[in-house]
Design goal:
CATH class: Alpha Beta
Helix content: 25-40%
Strand order of the largest sheet: 2-1-5-6-7
Largest sheet: 5 strands, parallel
Number of domains: 1
Distance between the termini: 25 Å
Radius of gyration: 16 Å
Number of helices: 6
Length: 178
């Protein structure tokens, strides 16, 4: 896998297939990117489980905070890492001990750990590094253009609303929630 560029189909397939996201490095500070990315993903219909040892047992955006991935009592589809590149290694290793394993390891903007990515891919997981799911969703849904961004995607397909009727979806059809 070339981790310097990802196809729109690769990202879309991930965002379409995952339902439960563990957000490692979640913050209760409303100006931190992890906070507003969590809010955005919740608004899109994902179940987002915040992970932060300092906030364990508290609630963040209505969701119970866990101290570690292993403490989450349900299967996780994707681990979204809001920590530095060095910390991404041990977080990925912890994710690989889960049963069942998550489908995806996603490292946020500026987070890259090629060794951890190789371990995850060897275990059959998909990996995204140095990308933000909020931004990628916005590019694929057409929302990115609302703020003057260029998604890099050309399509004649009419954008569709999320089933809530409030925001655009990824244009993947009715009742997908995405």
């Amino acid at each position: 896998m070339n981790h310097d560029s990802y196809s729109a189909d690769y990202i879309r397939d991930i965002l379409k297939s995952v339902k439960t996201i563990a957000l490692v490095g979640a913050s209760s500070n409303i100006v931190r990117p992890s906070y507003f990315v969590m809010q955005y993903l919740l608004d899109k219909g994902y179940e987002v489980i915040p992970v932060n040892p300092g906030l364990a047992g508290q609630e963040l955006l209505g969701q119970k905070v866990y101290g570690a991935l292993k403490d989450i009592p349900k299967p996780i589809d994707m681990v979204d890492i809001f920590r530095n590149s060095e910390a991404a290694g041990p977080i990925t290793d912890e994710a690989l001990t889960l049963d069942p394993k998550p489908k995806v390891i996603w490292m946020q903007l500026s987070v890259r750990n090629d060794e951890a990515a190789a371990r995850a891919e060897a275990a059959g997981l998909q990996v995204v590094m140095d990308r933000c799911p909020k931004m990628e969703y916005g590019k694929l849904s057409g929302e990115w253009a609302w703020v003057g961004g260029n998604s890099g995607i050309l399509s004649s397909r009419k954008q569709t609303l999320h089933e809530s009727g409030k925001v655009q979806s990824l244009g993947l059809g009715p009742k997908t929630g995405y």
